[in-house]
Design goal:
- The complex is a heterodimer of chains A (about 400) and B (about 240).
- Chain A is an alpha/beta fold and about 400 residues long.
- Chain A folds into two domains: about 160 residues, Glutathione S-transferase Yfyf (Class Pi), Chain A, domain 2 (Up-down Bundle); about 170 residues, Rossmann fold (3-Layer(aba) Sandwich), CATH 3.40.50.11810.
- In chain A, about 45% of the residues lie in helices and about 10% in strands.
- Chain A is built from 20 helices and eleven strands.
- In chain A, the strands form four sheets. Chain A has a four-stranded parallel β-sheet with strand order 9-8-10-11.
- Chain A is globular.
- Chain B has about 240 residues and is an all-alpha fold.
- Chain B has 15 helices and no strands.
- In chain B, helix 2 crosses helix 7, helix 6 crosses helix 8 and helix 13 packs across helix 15.
- The longest helix of chain B is centred in the middle third of the chain and has 14 residues.
- The radius of gyration of chain B is 22 Å and the shape is elongated.
- The relative contact order of chain B is 0.10.
- The chains are: A alpha/beta (about 400), B mainly alpha (about 240).
- At the A-B interface, helix 3, helix 4, helix 5, helix 6 and helix 7 of A face helix 5, helix 8, helix 10, helix 11 and helix 12 of B.
Chain lengths: ~400, ~240
């Protein structure tokens, strides 16, 4: 009897949620522990507009539009600063207020997944110290990094489940004079972009209808504590996370699929730093080459620090070996900023990227040579000491 | 050569290697893995379906298998688990694609715990894996951010293309050309306040992480780096660590 492939494929066209398989809503335990005085729940401030978005098993997730405490990402700020800058720029353009704190540390999860030189209590204490810092300001945390987001969701699950861990972490936090705080939702910036995609599209000034896109969904966004990630029945039939893709579609770009979409990028945490032969091989052979062959995109969009770094930086060495690589890589935040008219160098800071983005800019109708000359003029002003830093006003001048 | 001695499903010691380490010592390490509060949530048994291997990036390029990790743990195969702690666990990419397991296992999570135990005991595999990495550990502990712009040196990343040299050459100017005020730094990802560094230091101290690191790396006298002296002073004023 032949294998009924068509029946299997039909079943995969749409993800139908089985109510019996819905995991319990963590909010019940969160509220119970708050009532018991074991922790403080940071609520979305009253008066802040909220968008409800769908998650994998149907639970609506509340995403605040404004008054956000930006939990920045080490790799974004350090090596691809146009990523963070674009997030801030889009938020400013849409008129939503935020706080960019100095009392924030890294989640330290990159180090933890690379070296294991930590433990569950330390990781949880780092997380809730950051949450407590956000709580002190009244601004609601928005997590920039996919790994921070995934790790914090794991930390939340561990804290809610293990009383001993809670007690240990509370003792550490008492030393710091802070309470044990968890936000009512852990929100990733790409969820904010998903929630605001129509507002972003309404401010679009560049035509992206000729731009072909492939999307790499970040592992730590949707594989860790999967029930908390956004899945939209209207995007991939609810079979894959909808963030990034829904935004690219709202901006009129053509999203093309490819067979290895579920594969990780090859980052590996320790591998990207000390074993890059693995990272490079995986990123090019399993991701970029497959995308090129099956979808031939103009740009690869993703929503995590490690993924942008890996997919972008790994192509240079492969190109030297005449592999089928050579495609621009950026976050969907940078892509959205470009759609809204952001400067490719002053805001999106594409000169920090390695893979060739210039053909993409040309397709977007951007004269990158003129844009680079404008950026160089600004840099010269800084060099001459006429001003110390570029300001938000400068980048839109 | 036969791999069976008593139980045909367990790795024979002469095949697993590390005969210089007693079974008791190996069992003690595994007991420590099992005692981690997360362990019961990470292992439910194994169908041996291989889905975790199919989605595992490390399995494609290394002699590594998340299925063997879950199986060894489920069978409590002490000899094999010790071999894995010495030879396999550092290959894992920690992407957690293996969470696709239909049984609900988390082989990547088991690896995380095994790594922690390996570090705590200063095992050879941990020392070797972290040899070129320790600078990063001290970076995160002392500055509060994992990577910094000044790490982008062309001699450290020759395979990332000529743009790395451009960034390195123009680093200070290009950082000043970033509109967010917190990003003008070059030795940290963003501007982290001293008070925050102090709090981070207290966390490492109180949770035993500093002792843990000393097992695998002698490192600098004070892992909190240049701010260490002042931080220690403040900590001693504020707490019982005197």
């Amino acid at each position: 009897m032949p294998i009924p492939v068509d029946v299997i494929l039909r079943k995969k066209e749409r993800f139908v949620r089985d109510p019996d398989r819905v995991p319990p809503d963590f909010h019940e335990e969160l509220d119970r522990l708050e009532e018991a005085g074991e922790l403080v729940v940071q609520r979305i401030p009253e008066g802040v507009e909220v968008v409800e978005v769908p998650t994998k098993y149907g639970r609506p997730k509340r995403v605040p539009k404004s008054h956000l405490w930006h939990h920045k990402s080490c790799g974004q700020c350090g090596h691809i600063p146009g990523y963070s800058t674009s997030i801030f720029w889009v938020m400013r353009k849409l008129g939503y207020d935020y706080h960019d704190p100095k009392d924030q540390t890294s989640c330290t999860a990159w180090n933890y997944y690379a070296s294991a030189t930590s433990n569950d209590a330390a990781q949880a204490a780092v997380a809730v110290r950051n949450f407590a810092a956000a709580h002190e300001t009244g601004y609601f945390p928005l997590i920039h990094c996919g790994t921070s987001y995934g790790h914090y969701k794991e930390v939340r699950a561990e804290l809610l489940e293990h009383a001993e861990l809670r007690a240990q972490v509370r003792r550490v936090l008492e030393r710091l004079g802070k309470p044990l705080v968890l936000p009512e939702e852990i929100v990733h910036y790409s969820e904010w972009f998903y929630a605001l995609r129509d507002e972003i599209a309404a401010r679009q000034v560049r035509d992206f209808s000729g731009i072909a896109v492939t999307v790499h969904p970040a592992c730590h966004y949707y594989k860790l504590v999967e029930g908390d990630a956004i899945y939209d029945p209207d995007v991939y039939g609810g079979q894959r996370t909808a963030v990034v893709t829904a935004l690219a579609e709202a901006l009129g770009a053509e999203v093309r699929t490819y067979s290895t979409w579920f594969d990780c990028c090859g980052f590996g945490f320790r591998h990207i730093l000390v074993q890059r032969d693995f990272t490079r091989s995986f990123a090019t052979l399993r991701k970029i080459e497959v995308m090129k062959e099956e979808a031939d995109p103009d740009v690869v969009l993703t929503h995590d620090t490690g993924c942008v770094t890996t997919l972008d930086k790994s192509q240079f060495a492969a190109q030297a070996h005449d592999r089928n690589v050579g495609v621009a890589v950026m976050s969907e935040a940078q892509f959205a900023a470009l759609a809204m008219g952001a400067h490719p160098f002053k805001v999106c800071q594409l000169h920090w990227h390695s893979a060739n983005y210039r053909p993409l800019l040309e397709k977007m109708g951007i004269d990158w040579e003129a844009a680079w000359a404008e950026f160089q003029e600004d840099v010269e002003r800084l060099r001459r000491g006429e001003q110390e830093y570029l300001t938000w006003e400068d980048v839109d001048a | 050569m036969s791999t069976s001695v008593v139980d045909p499903y367990l790795k024979a010691p002469e095949v697993a290697g590390y005969a210089d380490v007693s079974f008791e010592e190996k069992r003690k390490l595994f007991e420590e893995v099992k005692q981690d509060a997360r362990y019961p949530d990470y292992l439910y048994g194994c169908y041996e379906c291989g889905v975790c291997v199919a989605v595992c990036p490390s399995a494609r390029f290394y002699d590594f298998s998340p299925r063997r990790i879950a199986q060894a743990a489920a069978r409590e195969d002490v000899e094999l688990l010790y071999q894995q702690m010495q030879e396999d666990i550092w290959e894992c990419s920690q992407c957690f694609s293996c969470l696709r397991c239909p049984r609900g296992n988390n082989p990547g999570g088991i690896v995380t715990i095994m790594r922690e135990v390996a570090v705590r005991h200063g095992m050879a595999s941990a020392r070797e894996a972290l040899e070129g990495y320790s600078r990063i550990i001290y970076k995160i502990m002392s500055t509060g951010t994992q990577v910094s712009p000044d790490m982008l040196q062309p001699d450290a990343f020759p395979d990332w293309g000529p743009e790395v040299a451009d960034v390195s050459e123009h680093l200070k100017l290009w950082r000043r050309a970033l509109p967010p005020e917190t990003l003008h730094t070059t030795s940290t990802g963003w501007d982290v306040s001293d008070r925050t560094l102090l709090e981070l230091y207290v966390i490492w101290l109180e949770t035993g992480v500093l002792d843990m690191i000393r097992e695998v790396d002698e490192g600098p006298a004070d892992p909190a780096g240049p701010v260490g002296g002042r931080l220690r002073e403040e900590v001693s004023c504020r707490s019982r660590w005197t």
